[in-house]
Specification:
The complex is a heterodimer of chains A (about 120) and B (about 110). Chain A is about 0% helix and about 50% strand. Chain A has about 120 residues and is mainly β. In chain A, strands 2, 5, 6, 10, 11 and 12 form a six-stranded mixed β-sheet that branches. A four-stranded antiparallel β-sheet of chain A has the order 3-9-8-7, with no helix packed on it. In chain A, a hairpin with a 2-residue loop joins strand 7 and strand 8. Chain B has about 110 residues and is an all-beta fold. Chain B has no helices and eleven strands. In chain B, a hairpin with a 6-residue loop joins strand 4 and strand 5. Classes of the chains: A mainly beta (about 120), B mainly beta (about 110). Chains A and B meet through strand 6 and strand 11 of A and strand 4, strand 5 and strand 9 of B.
Chain lengths: ~120, ~110
């Protein structure tokens, strides 16, 4: 079974600064997807960024980027120019890439609560 | 754009009662996933459906059952409710079973008293 570990239960950052959230995972599979989801106080699950394991290039979405180290099984999220609206719980998630009949269930880490201070 | 709809948004039940949660996927999405998020916890996969058939099962108690109907909406039925069932229940949909993109609904908050 896959496991996802987020070692930072809480983090804080000043507005406009950069912060990095850590995530490691354990799997014996070679094809998979990794995600960062944001859960603000509204509790809605919002996809922040996605990385396919077969792609060496790190994914980027505006102020959000990842550092994907496949050999180390590490998948960190960098948030640049932090904004007050970034305050939320951030979950790292793993999904197997199994074609031919299997669905893609998500396995989540325990989350990191990020607070952006004015 | 249409999103995943979940109803009700909030539900309060007493111990030993039953509850039914409904999920309406995005139009033309035929795959549905259910997740349970306890207080202060990460979401846990419960069960999934593809084309009205159960396709995968996670840590779903035997007291829970679910199905997907011909219009692709899904219902999660929970019986003999326990205090520990209090949680946020998410439904997510995908355009098909080979898609890695899951679109989450707003969740149903179930409180068992």
């Amino acid at each position: 079974a896959q496991t996802v570990t987020q070692s930072q239960p809480e983090m804080s950052v000043q507005e406009a600064e950069t912060v990095t959230l850590s995530c490691t995972y354990d799997t014996s599979e070679s094809n998979y997807y990794l995600f960062w989801y944001k859960q603000p106080p509204s509790r809605q699950m919002i996809l922040v960024i996605r990385q396919e394991a077969y792609k060496q290039q790190n994914a980027t979405e505006n102020r959000f980027s990842v550092n994907f180290q496949k050999a180390a099984k590490s998948f960190s999220l960098k948030i640049s120019d932090s904004q007050l609206g970034d305050t939320a719980m951030y979950f790292c998630a793993f999904m197997n890439h199994l074609r031919g009949g299997s669905n893609y269930k998500l396995t989540f880490g325990k989350g990191t609560l990020l607070t952006v201070n004015p | 754009a249409a999103g995943v709809i979940q109803s009700p948004r909030h539900l309060i039940k007493e111990k030993r009662e039953t509850a039914t949660l409904k999920c309406y996927p995005i139009p033309r999405h035929d795959t549905v996933y259910w997740y349970q998020q306890g207080p202060g916890q990460d979401p846990q996969f419960l069960i999934s459906f593809y084309e009205k058939m159960q396709s995968d099962k996670g840590s779903i108690p035997d007291r829970f059952s679910a199905q997907q109907f011909s219009d692709y909406h899904s219902e999660l039925n929970m019986s003999s409710l326990e205090l520990g069932d209090s949680a946020l229940y998410f439904c997510a949909s995908s355009i098909n079973r080979d898609s890695y993109e899951q679109y989450f609904g707003p969740g149903t908050r179930l409180t068992v008293t």
